């Protein structure tokens, strides 16, 4: 079935503005200071990071592992597609790439009040970034994000991995549509942290993204990605924009609930400077991680 036009009003855009990267986001150092330097970014420069996802009332992103689940209504979905026009990159973990076969483009309708006979889709597209350390995502040329890139409706993905030599066939598919693999080293203390699974350090991921000239990134999920960024890595997050849908998915869902790493008597993270914005049946919560 054809997707309904995704329209996001000028008034709603204005309300979101304080929570978005500035239109010409300048490079940023790791200590979060702003710089207006036009020279190539240093290794410690990071992009503006927004954490954006849709959740149920019981904190679930989906009905279960591997199940693509629609939570956002039409208005909040349009908001998400507006966010996609306002970031240079869009990021998901490999779990999401496998579960959802996502497009990761913006399909925002730019024609306010048009006759709706034709839809003029936004020109600015974010660069998809997939975190896939072990190259588990068995993508093909027919995967949605590859197809959209071929059709000029989105950008080809960059896949961030720990593999130094990705399979040649995969390289061909990816590079054929304009994407590439970005190979990084594992985080130092990873073996201890997650039972032997090799991890990527978020600061290294973000630094690599910035080195590609991408000045802002919206991180959509899934749960493992969000939980890690709300935990020990929360200092890397500039803005949080959560769509809350009025539904309970029930136990067994894939949930946002970061680990209690420091002190069990204190919350893991809290938002400050909050703004609640009803959109249709949903509400969108914007804020900053209180530091
Ligand atoms: N409602 C919403 O807004 C959204 C919902 N979703 C849903 O979320 C679910 C997927 O979530 P989930 O299963 O948690 O998967 P994720 O998309 O979070 O991917 C998790 C995997 O990504 C890799 N990864 C993530 N962070 C790191 C890191 N720092 N270093 C190395 N590897 C890393 C790991 O791969 P490996 O195991 O190979 O090491 C990990 O298993 C799906 O059902 C999807 O539909 C997803 C996005 C948004
Ligand atoms: N904002 C939002 N609302 C939902 O209800 C969702 N299920 C998601 N999921 C995210 O969007 C990706 C799918 O994007 P495409 O429509 O295929 O471009 C999915 O992979 C999740 O990252 N988001």
From TrEMBL:
Top-level EC class: oxidoreductase
Catalysed reactions listed for this entry: 2,5-diamino-6-(1-D-ribitylamino)pyrimidin-4(3H)-one 5'-phosphate + NAD(+) = 2,5-diamino-6-(1-D-ribosylamino)pyrimidin-4(3H)-one 5'-phosphate + NADH + H(+); 2,5-diamino-6-(1-D-ribitylamino)pyrimidin-4(3H)-one 5'-phosphate + NADP(+) = 2,5-diamino-6-(1-D-ribosylamino)pyrimidin-4(3H)-one 5'-phosphate + NADPH + H(+)
Domain Bacterial bifunctional deaminase-reductase C-terminal per the UniProt entry, residue ranges: 47-285
Enzyme Commission code(s) on record: 1.1.1.302
Keyword Oxidoreductase attributed: yes
Family per similarity comment: Belongs to the HTP reductase family.
Protein name, as recorded: 2,5-diamino-6-ribosylamino-4(3H)-pyrimidinone 5'-phosphate reductase
Native source species: Xylaria grammica
Lineage of the organism: Eukaryota, Fungi, Dikarya, Ascomycota, Pezizomycotina
């Amino acid at each position: 079935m054809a997707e309904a036009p995704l329209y996001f009003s000028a008034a709603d855009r204005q309300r979101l503005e304080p929570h978005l990267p500035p239109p010409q986001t300048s490079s940023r150092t790791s200590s979060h200071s702003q710089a207006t330097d036009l020279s190539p970014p240093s290794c410690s420069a990071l992009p503006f990071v927004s954490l954006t996802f849709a959740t149920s009332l019981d904190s679930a992103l989906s009905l279960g592992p591997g199940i693509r689940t629609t939570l956002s209504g039409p208005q909040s979905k349009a908001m998400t597609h507006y966010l996609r026009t306002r970031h240079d990159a869009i990021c998901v973990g490999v779990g999401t790439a496998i579960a959802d076969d996502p497009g990761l483009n913006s399909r925002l309708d730019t024609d306010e009040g048009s006759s709706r006979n034709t839809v003029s889709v936004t020109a600015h597209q974010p660069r998809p970034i997939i975190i896939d350390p072990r190259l588990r995502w068995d993508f093909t040329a027919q995967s949605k994000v590859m197809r959209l890139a071929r059709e000029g409706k989105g950008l080809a993905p960059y896949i961030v991995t720990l593999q130094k030599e990705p399979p040649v066939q995969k390289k061909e598919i990816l590079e054929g549509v304009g994407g590439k693999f970005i190979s990084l080293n594992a985080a130092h203390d990873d073996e201890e942290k997650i039972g032997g699974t090799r991890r990527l350090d978020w600061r290294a991921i973000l630094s690599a993204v910035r080195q590609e000239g991408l000045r802002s990134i919206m991180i959509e999920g899934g749960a493992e990605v969000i939980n890690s960024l709300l935990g020990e890595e929360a200092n890397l997050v500039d803005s949080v924009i959560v769509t809350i849908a009025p539904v309970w998915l029930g136990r067994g869902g894939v949930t946002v609930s970061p680990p209690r790493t420091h002190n069990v008597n204190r919350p893991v993270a809290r938002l400050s400077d909050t703004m609640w914005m009803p959109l249709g049946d949903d509400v969108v919560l914007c804020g900053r991680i209180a530091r």
